Amino acid sequence: MEPNQINSRLFCLIFAFLSISGIDSSLGEYLYTTQWLEVPVDHFGFANNDTFKLRYLKNDTYATEPNAAAILFYTGNEGDIELFAQNTGFMWDAVSDRNNGLNAELIFAEHRYYGQSLPYGNKSYDSAKQLGYLSSEQALADFASILQEINPGNRRPVIAIGGSYGGMLAAWFRMKYPHMVLGAIAASAPVLQFKDITPCGVYNRILTSVFANAYSKDCSENIRKSWKILKTRAETDDGRAFLKRQFNLCANLTKHEDVDQLLDYLTEMYSNLAMANYPYEANFLAPLPANPVREFCWRFKGDNLNDTQLIQSLASAVIVYSNFTGRVKCLDINETATDRLGTRGWDFQACTEMVMPMCSNGVKDMFEPEDWDFKKYSDECFKKLGVRPRTEVEMITRYGGNQINTATNIVFSNGLLDPWSGAGVLRTPNNRVKIVIIPEGAHHIDLRAKNNNDPQSVIMARQIHLDTIKEWISQRYGA
Amino acid sequence: MEPNQINSRLFCLIFAFLSISGIDSSLGEYLYTTQWLEVPVDHFGFANNDTFKLRYLKNDTYATEPNAAAILFYTGNEGDIELFAQNTGFMWDAVSDRNNGLNAELIFAEHRYYGQSLPYGNKSYDSAKQLGYLSSEQALADFASILQEINPGNRRPVIAIGGSYGGMLAAWFRMKYPHMVLGAIAASAPVLQFKDITPCGVYNRILTSVFANAYSKDCSENIRKSWKILKTRAETDDGRAFLKRQFNLCANLTKHEDVDQLLDYLTEMYSNLAMANYPYEANFLAPLPANPVREFCWRFKGDNLNDTQLIQSLASAVIVYSNFTGRVKCLDINETATDRLGTRGWDFQACTEMVMPMCSNGVKDMFEPEDWDFKKYSDECFKKLGVRPRTEVEMITRYGGNQINTATNIVFSNGLLDPWSGAGVLRTPNNRVKIVIIPEGAHHIDLRAKNNNDPQSVIMARQIHLDTIKEWISQRYGA
C-alpha cells in the first residue's frame, strides 16, 4: 500500500456506486422529471443565509393512488444523482411489477456538492469557504427539506433507500428524522468503519479472501508477492522500461511518484474488482466481464512464477479491468475510474468528518504492511486539501457507531463478497432492525435491477426488502 | 396584547427559568467545579473552523463509584448555567439522599451564546455573522462534545434533564443522540408549540383560567376589561398622569410607545405570575409571595368596579409582582425581569428557528384579540434584529413536532397551572415515553428543590422521575 491512503482507500466508497452504475446509465433506461428545491446552504445556523437549488428526480408513473402512495426516497451519495437513478433498478422494479408492485412514487435526491447541486456553482470547490458546507448532516437536512416540500405533514410513508455511503445516509436519515422516514433500506453501508469499532485491517482481509477464493489461492499469494517485485524492478531504468512495456503504460515511469501511482492504481483495482464482482457482465466506467475477480485470478494463477513471469502474468490479468473491451490503446494509471464522479468532494468529506481507518499487515492480507496512523492521515489531508479532520470520532459522536440499539425500521444488507461488509451491521441490535446477509453478493448488488444471473441469495434479499417495506407501510396504516 | 409579540410572548420561555431561579442562586447553595471544553463554532461544516470554550459545571461528590456512576446532565437553556445549577434542586436532591440517592455525577452544560459561553467573546452579539451559530442543533452538538469528552465510549449511563427550553433540549438530545443519552426528563417542555400542532390560543386560555380560578372569576374578567380602559385613559394628558400616579411609574407616559410598554409589562407579568405560581414564597429577580396569582387576584377582585376603581385595584395588585419586598421606589416598565439573562439571544432564536405561534381572541382569554400573523411576526423580527425565520416549520422538520412515536426513554412532565402545559406532550406516543401531569404544578416546579409546601402531586412527580431514571439505568445494565 502506498502512502496516499486518501486516494487509494477512500475512493473505494465513491467507486462503490460506480460499480452499480455503468454505461447503461447514460442510455437513460428509466424516465423521471427533474425538480429543484431552494435550500439553505447552512441549515443549522444563520451566519450565512445563502441558498441554492438542490436537484431531485421524480417518477410518479406507478403511484396509482397518489394521495396514498408511498415514497421511495433514494438518499443520494457522492455523485451525479442521475447515475443513481438509472442504476438503482431495485427501486424501479419494486414499483413497476404489475401484479405485486408497490404503490409508490420514486424520488432520487442529489447530495449537495455533487452532480448539479452545487451551492456556489462552479466556484463550489474553490476553497473551504465555499466547500465547507459539504457534510453528511447538511445533506440529511437537505433531504428533510425535500420531504417537507413534497410530503407536508408526513402524510405519506417514506422509505429511504441507499447503497454504500448512500446506504449510510439512508440509515442515518431514519435515525435522525424518524418522523419523516418510516424505514430505511441500507445496502452495503459501512456504518461501522470508524475508529475502534471495526478493526482497520478487516477490509483488506475480506478483499484478500475474495481473491484467494475466486479461482485459486495462488491469486492472492501472487498479489502479495507482487509489491516487492514491482518496487525492485522500478529501481532501475531497465526495470521501469520493462514495467512500462508489460503493463502497456501510456507514459514512462520517470519519477518516484509514477511508480507510486502504478501501485495505487493496482490497489484501487483490487477494491473495485471485488466490489463489482457480479455474476454477469456489467458496463462500468471500465466495462467488466461476469465474475471479474475469477477472470482476473484465472490469469494470475500459478504458485511457482519467477519474478518476470509474475509481472507478465499480473499485467495480462490487469487487462480484465483496464481493457475488457479491447478498445483501450494504453493504460493510463493517472486516470481513475472515478473521475466522472465527485472525487474531490469525497476527498474533502474523508478529510473532514468521514475518517475511516484502514490498515494492512501483509500476513492476513495481500498488501504491504501499513498501520493506521491518524496523524499521518491528517497531515496528508492538510497537504492535499488544506483541511484536517476535526477529530477521529466525529461520525461516532454524530451517528452512534455501533451503539444503535434504539434504531428501528432499518434493513442492513451486506454481501459477503464485498470488502465493505466487514464494517456493515451484521448483527441486529434489536428485533426492529433486520439484517440481510447475501453470501453470493458483492457491493450492494441487491439494489441493482434484477438479472437472470442473479444468485438465489440476491433474489431473496430483494424480496426481503420488498416484504419489509410493505410490512412497515401496513403497520403505519394500522393494518 | 401589543404588537411586540417577540418580547411579550417569547420572553416567557426565558422567564421560565427565572421563575425557578431566584436570588438564592447568587448565594451559591450548591458547589461545583467549572470546566471548559473547546468546541467548534460550527459542528456541521468546515467553512468556519473557529473554536471557542464552552463552560460546564461538574459535581462528583456523590458519585460514590466513579466508574459506575451515572451522569445527570442538565441541558442548559437561555441563560447563565450557574443559575440553572443553583436552581435545579431536584438534581442535587437526587444524588445527595444518603439512603436512596443516585450514584451519579452532576453536569450542567451551558448553552452557547449565554452566560460565559460566548463564541466570539463580547463581540458575539455584534451581528448575525457572529451570532449566526446560535441554534438548538449547534447547542445539542456542543452537549454531545462534552459527553464525548467526559464519557468516552458512552460507558456510563447519561440522563439528560432540563426545564422549559432546556426541557425541549433534553428531549431532543435523547431523540437525536440516543447512543449518548440513555433517557431524558423533560420538564414543562413546550415541544408542541409549533405551527398547526397546538392552537395558538391555548397558552392564553390556560393563563386566563389560572387567573379565573386562583381567587374569583372577577380577576380574569377585570383583566379582560382593563386593556380598553387603560388605552382610553392613555389618550389624554390627564389620563396618562393618572396612570403614572396609580402605578407609581418612574417615568412619565409621554409617547405612544410608553403606553405600549406599560401594556407589555402587564402582559409579561401575567405570564410570569402564572409560571411562578408556586405554593411558597420564592425569591425571583422580583421576589414573589407564595401563590402569587391568588395574591394578585385577591387584590383585583370585585365584579362591579368602575373604570377608575378598576385601574386603582389593578395598580395595587401589580405591587405583588413589582414590589413584594416594599423596597422598590417606583415601577420601571422598561426593566423586564429577564435583563440578567440572555434576552437578546432568545430574541434571535425566536426570530430564526424557534417560531412559536401565539394568539388571543378576547373571548376565551383575557387579552385583546390578536391573530397569529407569521408575516407580521417575521417583519417585526427583521425590523428589530435584521433576521427573519427561514420558515415557520423549521423546528417541526428538525425535531418531529407531534410525530414522535419512535421516541423512547423520555419523561414529559407538565404542571396544569403552567400556561406552557398546553404545548407539552400530554399523551404518550408509546409505552416507552412517560407522561407526568402535575395538577397543582406551575412551570417545571418538579425540577426545584423539595420544599415543605410542595403539593403531593409535585412530590409524586419527582418520585416518578427518580424511579424512572433508576429503571432506565438498571435496564441498561441488564438488571
Written account of the structure:
Two copies of one chain form a homodimer. Chain A has 479 residues and is an alpha/beta fold. Chain A is built from 17 helices and eight strands. In chain A, helix 7 links the parallel strand 5 (158-163) and strand 6 (183-187). The first copy, chain A, is globular. Residues 1-27 of chain A have low confidence and may be disordered.
CATH architecture annotation of the largest domain in chain A: 3-Layer(aba) Sandwich
Q: Beta-sheet strand percentage of chain A? A: 5-15%
* Strand numbers in spatial order across the main sheet of chain A: 1-2-4-3-5-6-7-8
Q: How many strand units of chain A?
A: 8
Family (chains A, B): Belongs to the peptidase S28 family.
GO molecular function (chains A, B): dipeptidyl-peptidase activity; serine-type carboxypeptidase activity
Protein name (chains A, B): Lysosomal Pro-X carboxypeptidase
Function (chains A, B): Cleaves C-terminal amino acids linked to proline in peptides such as angiotensin II, III and des-Arg9-bradykinin. This cleavage occurs at acidic pH, but enzymatic activity is retained with some substrates at neutral pH.
Would you spell out the secondary-structure blueprint of this structure?
Two copies of one chain form a homodimer.
Chain A: H1 5-20, H2 24-27, E1 33-40, E2 51-59, E3 70-75, H3 81-87, H4 89-96, E4 104-109, H5 128-131, H6 136-150, E5 158-163, H7 165-176, E6 183-187, H8 202-214, H9 218-233, H10 237-247, H11 256-275, H12 292-299, H13 307-322, H14 343-350, H15 374-385, H16 394-399, E7 410-415, E8 433-438, H17 456-476
Parallel strand pairs in A: 3-4, 3-5, 5-6, 6-7, 7-8
Antiparallel strand pairs in A: 1-2, 2-4
